[in-house]
Every structure is written in structure tokens, then in C-alpha cells.
Amino acid sequence: MNFCSQCGAAAIELRVPEGDTLPRYVCAACHTIHYRNPKIVVGCLPEWRGKVLLCKRAIVPRLGLWTLPAGFLENGETLAAGALRETLEEAKAQVDIGELYTVISLPHISQVYMMFRARLASLDFGPGPESLEVRLFDEDDVPWGELAFRTITRTLRNYFLDRKLGGLRLHVSAIEKRATLKPELTGAA
Amino acid sequence: MNFCSQCGAAAIELRVPEGDTLPRYVCAACHTIHYRNPKIVVGCLPEWRGKVLLCKRAIVPRLGLWTLPAGFLENGETLAAGALRETLEEAKAQVDIGELYTVISLPHISQVYMMFRARLASLDFGPGPESLEVRLFDEDDVPWGELAFRTITRTLRNYFLDRKLGGLRLHVSAIEKRATLKPELTGAA
């Protein structure tokens, strides 16, 4: 933030406003406080006869890797509406949204993932503009080494494990920033 | 938004960017797209031997009405950390955060409420700067007519009903804009 979006002044300061506890972008000219807050990524895990629907990303980041349909919740949307929209956009798929399944905080990038279970309404699906390919996968065929995000890996792992254990339940968790370990710390050569 | 926070130009247009589907604030000078997304309100329902902890608001909106400790999730925070912080700020109370209990989309104001169950760690609590009073309530004493937000009423109603039914489970729902009905439509005089 270089300029105040309210008054246009090049007078943005990062400081703790009076009565607040955290630093904010504050305009020294018009005193507007510009708050920044985490974003919600909403999506779903579309199921079809034991298989799950994944999309191969046609966009950065993680172009060419596989993901569940998900994206930023938009203003004016409910969570379920956002999950439906993303699934239609990325996989051209109609789903019935089920229970909320994983909620994952990503504090280092100020995002919260919220993934619902969903039932694919038909086999009429295909890549939207943000996908290269859309496919149904059995557990054994899931490209575990080519998943785009840790949130997606966690959601899919929870799902297949819960299925084996006989009950799907909400998982609320957090994923912290991944440390970059030097080889001598990992035990690798 | 009157000015571009990137380049300072008074050239903000509301239009659908190429490849997008929704209108955004776009700077005609430097082409920055200024996205706006829903905010998360995170909080908890602190329990103590069958009672729940409520805070009387010292700030607008809804000054003087009762609420559960909750507020905007901050950048860099997990959901649980946000619920802990809000409870400490508003009720000076230490809690142990439990299960996620209500998730309520409010599309007309682009917010998503996420309320956790919580156990009050001690009776050492009191009003923070945003509260006039903090008290424990039995179900019969809850000031149902003086609650600050419909999200809070719904969370508390779910809670006391679930307790009667013998099991607390996640509730995911939405609250739409409340219509202002004219008397002839409501049946009132």
C-alpha cells in the first residue's frame, strides 16, 4: 500500500492506532485505517461412487499439479454458494454440497481453507479455464506426489482414512509455514 | 475506494477484468485489480458448569447489548488463536478452545462467523475495554431480547437445544438480510 485509497495521499504509515493492539496501515493525512484480514478459500471434495474429482491446474501457482475445486470466497456469497461456484468454474461440475469437512488455518499466508464434502450430480464435467484436466480418482490412483497444496493433501488423506475408520467427521487444524531444512538436519545425504 | 493504493491515480473503475466473472475495483492507470473479500468473525462460547459467559457491548454497533466474545480474525492468526485473543480482550478470560460449533455465512455484509465451544479456565474474568459487563448466565437468565447479533442468538439457541437433545454438533448455516416488513405484511396493528 503506497497511497491512501480514501484521499490519495502518499502518507501511509504502519503503526498501532490509538485503542488498537496491532499495527495497521494508517493515512497520516485523512486518518483512515486500512484494515487487512485473512481470506477464505472455499471448495469441496466431489465424490462419485467412491472416487474423488480432482482438477489439474492450468494457472500459477502450482501449474500442472492436482487440486480439489476451491478458490477465494467472494463478497456477497455464502460458503456453500462459493463452493458450488468454484466447482462449476474449475471442473464444470454440478454438485450437491454436503457437510463441512476440513477447516485449515494458514496463518503465514493469512488464509483459512474451508472444504465441504459434495456429491457429484452427474458425470458431465470437464476442465474450466483454470484447469488442464479434470478426472475421477480411486484412492490408489490419487497422484499424491503431484498435489498442489498441503491443504488438499490433508483433506484427501483425512477423507480416505476416515472412510477406512468408518466415519467422516469435521477436521479443524492449522498448517504453519514449512521450514526449509538443510540436508544435515533432515538426515538426507 | 477513490484512489489507487498502488499508484495513487484517481482512476478507479468498477468493471469485470478480462478472464474474470465479477466486477472489481480496477485502476485504469496502473491496471492493479483491488480485490475485496469476506471477513471472518471468530469467537467462542465459554462454558462454566452449565453456564455461558456473555459480554455487554461498550462499543457501537449494538452498544449495551449482550454478545459472545468474538471479533475479526487478524492476518497471521489461526482461528483458535483469534478466538482466544478476542476472549481475552473482551472478557479478560482464559479459555480452552474446543470444537468448532457454528459457522454462519452473512452474505449481505460479507462476513462468516465461526464460533468455537470453549471451557472457561477460571472465574477470573471481567470487562475489557470493549465491554461494559461480563457475566455467566444460566439458560433461563440469558437476556434473549437483548442479544446484539442474530449470529449470537442462533449460536446460543443451538447450544441449549443440543444440550437438551444430548449431543453438540457442528451447525453450518446462513443468515440473509432481514426484510423490513410493513405492518400490513406482518399481521401487526
Plain-language structure description:
The structure is a homodimer of 189-residue chains. The first copy, chain A, has three helices and eleven strands. In chain A, strand 8 and strand 9 (111-120) form a beta hairpin. With 189 residues, the first copy, chain A, is of the alpha+beta class. In chain A, the strands form two sheets. In chain A, strands 4, 5, 6, 7, 8, 9, 10 and 11 form an eight-stranded mixed β-sheet that branches. In chain A, strands 1-2-3 form a three-stranded antiparallel β-sheet, with no helix packed on it. The longest helix of chain A has 16 residues, at 150-165. The first copy, chain A, has helices spanning 79-91, 150-165, 183-186, and strands at residues 12-15, 24-27, 33-34, 39-48, 51-57, 66-67, 70-72, 95-106, 111-120, 131-137, 171-174. In chain A, 17% of the residues lie in helices and 34% in strands. The first copy, chain A, is elongated. The A-B interface holds A 1-8, 10, 12, 19, 21-22, 34-40, 72-81, 89, 99-100, 103, 105, 107-108, 110, 112, 114, 129, 170, 172, 174 and B 1-8, 10, 12, 19, 21-22, 34-40, 72-81, 89, 99-100, 103, 105, 107-108, 110, 112, 114, 129, 170, 172, 174.
